[in-house]
């Protein structure tokens, strides 16, 4: 019975989320553009699919993924687990190796599942005429998130202030921007913003808060947040890095071809 | 005669549904593998409530498949159509207004943002940054939500303006990042963490496809703009602006 109540609640929340957008579109189409909505039936069916699909997705996440993820975050940062049952004091950041691995892997896998990233990759593949592979883009972004989260977890454990990492990261991004092929810049920046969405945010937030509560000396109010920032920043670096590498290998290949013609 | 043949062939609709189901499962497989590995191998504990988790997993797969289908049928086409029609109408005012309202409307009701704002209010109250009354916490949470919603509205507006005017993205983005760095230096440190996170939270599953379709749609219809070069970048702004606005809010609240 409680399941039905939960399901109903999630559906209502999803509808409430979609309602402003619906109102906006209908208003503009009918009153500003003064045209009937094209393919109305298809649009309505598609809209229903989006709302139902999203509601089911969120419900499933709440029932399955988040409880397990939260429990796991708590267990992996539990001092009893980390010291292996021994009474040794936790020295240094190396003791939390499992956390970094978990953060990296969870970052990778949630990003691959992220519907918003899927949407952007689909558009990118379509718009680039197939040059950009949607799956390739998603994996590159996922690797960026994995590295970012591992680093972020490391930061919580060591207690260095957030802004140092972020500013350093921004510097890298700015430098990269000057040497990346122009076509990929916008997409790279968008990938960073898109990764932190429905699936990633709750898990990452739970991981961050759980970690900052268990590691001695960390204040959840200051350190619990910030992991999401890492998860948005590093994909930008990885996507631009990938674009740069592909660009340079393509140039080198061309050079070799030219040299082969003129020995 | 034809019935014998038809019985052995899956009708195309069922085949297409199964294919999409398989795609959705492929997307969710890594999470299952990671959690399974950690739970069973590292923590060495059996999964509690296994049946409920399995059922939840199936829901997620079906939900994702439906969502993608709905995207292709509804969200993407309407986003592009609106972009084309608004551009053809020729009025920058309506286009920019639409852009601003799109950002604002989709953000203000966003569940993830509501959750983060409430969480932030609780943490601020526990840390004695704001009084621990319900009124104070609600006020703080709403303040954060409004700052973020406004910032996303402004962000999409600037993004669309950029497409119209043809400004290069990297100047604006770098300018934005410098703005964030400057704000970080002067904003109270209690607000910095949540400001950074609010940028990541805003880009919701429903907003992103619409905004992407809007950007691509606009840049494919306006002469001299190329979809790949100019169509993206709206989401980047939508993640950047909230950080600046929320830090501004923090400056006002935590004087």
Walk me through this protein's architecture.
- The complex is a heterodimer of chains A (263) and B (255).
- By secondary structure, chain A is mainly alpha-helical.
- Chain A is 81% helix and 0% strand.
- Chain A contains 11 helices and no strands.
- In chain A, helix 4 runs antiparallel to helix 6 and helix 4 (97-113) runs antiparallel to helix 9 (200-214).
- The radius of gyration of chain A is 22 Å and the shape is flat.
- The termini of chain A are far apart.
- Mean pLDDT of chain A is 81; it is low at 85-89.
- In chain B, helix 3 (50-89) runs parallel beside helix 9 (207-221) and helix 7 (169-186) packs parallel to helix 11 (234-253).
- The model of chain B is unreliable at 1-8 (pLDDT under 50).
- With 255 residues, chain B is an all-alpha fold.
- Chain B is 84% helix and 0% strand.
- Classes of the chains: A mainly alpha (263), B mainly alpha (255).
- The interface between A and B is large, with 110 and 111 residues.
Q: Secondary-structure element order of chain B, as H and E?
A: HHHHHHHHHHH
The largest β sheet of chain A comes out as:
none
Percentage of residues in helical conformation of chain A = over 70%
Greatest contact between two chains: A-B, 110 and 111 residues
| Shape annotation of chain B | flat
Helix content of chain B: over 70%
Measured between the Cα atoms of the first and last residue of chain A, the distance is 79 Å
- Any idea what the radius of gyration of chain B is? 23 Å
Count the DSSP helices of chain A: 11
Q: What structural class should be given to the helix and strand makeup of chain B?
A: mainly alpha
Tell me the strand percentage band of chain B: under 5%
Beta fraction of chain A: under 5%
**What's the pLDDT, averaged over the residues of chain B?**
81
Strand elements of chain B, count: 0
């Amino acid at each position: 019975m409680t399941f039905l109540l939960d399901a109903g609640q999630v559906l209502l929340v999803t509808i409430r989320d979609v309602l402003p957008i619906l109102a906006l579109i209908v208003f503009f189409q009918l009153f500003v553009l003064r045209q009937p909505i094209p393919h109305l039936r298809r649009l309505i069916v598609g809209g229903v699919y989006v709302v139902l699909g999203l509601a089911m997705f969120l419900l499933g996440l709440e029932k399955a993924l988040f409880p397990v993820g939260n429990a796991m975050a708590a267990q992996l940062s539990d001092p009893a687990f980390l010291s292996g049952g021994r009474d040794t004091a936790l020295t240094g950041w190396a003791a939390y190796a499992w956390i970094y691995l978990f953060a990296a892997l969870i970052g990778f896998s949630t990003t691959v599942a992220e519907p918003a990233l899927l949407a952007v990759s689909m558009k990118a593949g379509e718009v680039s005429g197939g040059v950009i592979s949607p799956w390739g883009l998603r994996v590159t972004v996922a690797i960026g998130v994995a590295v970012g989260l591992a680093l972020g977890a490391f930061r919580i454990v060591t207690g260095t202030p957030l802004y140092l990492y972020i500013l350093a990261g921004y510097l890298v991004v700015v430098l990269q921007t000057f040497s990346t092929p122009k076509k990929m810049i916008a997409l790279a920046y968008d990938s960073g913003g898109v990764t932190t969405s429905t699936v990633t945010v709750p898990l990452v937030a739970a991981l961050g808060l759980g970690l900052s509560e268990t590691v001695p000396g960390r204040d959840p109010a200051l350190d619990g947040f910030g992991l999401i920032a890492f998860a948005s920043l590093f994909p930008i670096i990885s996507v631009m890095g990938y674009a740069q590498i592909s660009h340079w290998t393509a140039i080198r290949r061309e050079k070799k071809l030219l040299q082969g013609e003129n020995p | 005669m034809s019935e014998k043949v038809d019985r052995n062939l899956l009708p195309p609709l069922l085949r297409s549904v199964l294919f999409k189901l398989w795609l959705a499962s492929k997307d969710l497989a890594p999470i299952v593998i990671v959690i399974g590995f950690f739970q069973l191998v590292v923590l060495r504990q059996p999964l509690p409530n296994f049946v409920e988790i399995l059922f939840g997993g199936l829901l997620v797969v079906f939900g994702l498949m439906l969502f993608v289908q709905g995207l292709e049928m509804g969200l993407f086409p309407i986003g592009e159509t609106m972009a084309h029609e608004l551009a053809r109408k020729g009025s920058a005012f309506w286009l920019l207004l639409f852009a601003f309202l799109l950002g604002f409307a989709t953000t203000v009701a966003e569940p993830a943002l509501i959750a983060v704002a409430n969480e932030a209010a609780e943490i601020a109250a526990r840390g004695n940054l704001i009084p621990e009354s319900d009124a104070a916490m609600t006020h703080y949470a709403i303040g954060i939500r409004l700052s973020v919603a406004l910032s996303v509205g402004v962000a999409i507006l600037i993004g669309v303006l950029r497409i119209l005017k043809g400004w290069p993205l990297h100047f604006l983005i770098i300018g934005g990042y410098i703005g964030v760095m400057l704000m970080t230096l002067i904003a109270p440190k209690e607000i910095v963490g949540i400001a950074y996170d609010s940028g990541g939270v805003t880009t919701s599953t429903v907003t992103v496809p619409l905004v992407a379709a809007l950007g691509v749609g606009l840049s494919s219809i306006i002469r001299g703009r190329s979809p790949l070069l100019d169509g993206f970048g709206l989401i980047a702004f939508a993640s950047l602006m909230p950080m600046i606005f929320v830090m501004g809010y923090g400056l006002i609240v935590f004087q």
